[in-house]
Amino acid sequence: MLLAELFGEHAIIKILEELVSNWNIPLTVDEIARMSDLSSGIVQKHLDELKNTGILISDNDKFQLGSQDERALSLALIESSEYLRRL
Q: Which of 59, 62, 73, 82 is positioned for an S-S bond with 26, CB 3.0–4.6 A?
């Protein structure tokens, strides 16, 4: 995905990529950890950081990017534009 190409293979980038790929699908820490190949502890730490910035919303221990957050929308736009370009 483009985010990793731009910013490197950092844990928070892997998490953001999974959240963008699963737009509007609430995911648990364990689901995100499994998809991003990270430990649940690392995922929880970064989700807490992202939630504090306001880019994430959570409900019942499930997380997703805020569909009205301009930063989240920008990430989704970058990823979708790159996907279309590669087609």
A: 62
Neighbouring C-beta atoms of residue 11, cutoff 10 Å: 15
Structure tokens at 12: 């928070």
pLDDT above 60: residue 82:
no
Contact present, 79 and 2 (Cβ < 8 Å): yes
The β-bridge relationship of strands 56-59 and 27-28 is unpaired
Domains of the chain (ranges; CATH) run: 2-86 (1.10.10.10)
> Which carries the bigger pLDDT value, residue 2 or residue 72?
72
pTM of the model: 0.87
At residue 47, the pLDDT reads 98
